[in-house]
């Protein structure tokens, strides 16, 4: 099979056996999507699968040897998995970095409001989304609330078939003439993204009745919303798309399609000469900030702890390990969509169903905010994929002056690592429901596994 081929899709290049393996992988990925619905749920699922394969928390180790499997749980919202190699860690690691947060709506600290007998939740959108896409959808409410006495309450409404769902209204077209005259970005404003919560009450006001329902079901008070993390996402599970079932629709492909490939790869890769590390980060969609984002110190702390378990406690050993490390920044790329051809430069755009995408640079316009991988490292990654028969392609995020975006690549490059963006191309990125090709999702897994196993 030709690994790099812009004329023939992955499906046409795969044997019947490979197609069956792809389909089996896709079913497991869909289960992950339907389980790992938020970054907290994703972190818990990743740790559960890792522990089933013999990974143990860092604090359980007093020393390290080749083949040891270690994990770090960062605040329940980011995870790092490591398989120790035969070479010392300071000689460099093989790192695949993905993220498990997704665009969504977050519930505000004082969210419950009543307007003319209708109760709503106030929200603040998270990440770069198009607000008009979030109206008239069934929505789930998922997250945690910590009460005044420190008790944790897990919330999940809208996920089960018998659950009620939330819903954000839009204006009917009969009355929408003025709305239709606005730009798409202004037709629905952020403060209008208020899901309906209820209308029924025997009292004059409805809000107290809704708060009483929350009290009865979850034993939480209105004040408890001040110490909560509640997310609103589409109440729609993953589905196959197309009469040929070649695609998957779901919320959160960005970036769980790469995160699941990363997880599956490190769980199945043969332990190598180099230490293998899989990063599952939070907060990428808002700039990798906070103590669960990659701009925090936890990845460096974890690496330093591993080095300490091998007898190296000085900072210079950490710097050496990072300087000699190689990284695939596993984040999605835009796939060419002929319906919106004007936004792309077709010759340099990735295509749906043509394999994992190597993206030399991201950023905006003049590559601002980009890592811009060096040619030497790109050459090495090409050789790894070609040798392992991994279907791959190249791509970039639209026309030069069209827009742009960023990943965690530049942050890890700041540490001295060799880094290139390498992710799954997709349609409808950052929409409530997104599209990936099964062939690309599976190619991502093959790519990360081959990278982990390379020297």
Automatic annotation (TrEMBL):
SUPFAM superfamilies: Aminopeptidase/glucanase lid domain, Zn-dependent exopeptidases. Signal peptide: none annotated. It is an enzyme of class 3 (hydrolase). GO terms for molecular function: aminopeptidase activity. It holds the Pfam family Peptidase_M18. Its EC number is 3.4.11.-. The keyword ATP-binding does not apply. InterPro entries: Peptidase_M18, Peptidase_M18_dom2. Keywords: Aminopeptidase, Hydrolase, Metal-binding, Metalloprotease, Protease, Zinc. Its cofactor is Zn(2+). Belongs to the peptidase M18 family. PANTHER family: ASPARTYL AMINOPEPTIDASE (PTHR28570), M18 FAMILY AMINOPEPTIDASE 1-RELATED (PTHR28570:SF2). This is M18 family aminopeptidase. It comes from Megasphaera hominis. The lineage of its organism: Bacteria, Bacillati, Bacillota, Negativicutes, Veillonellales.
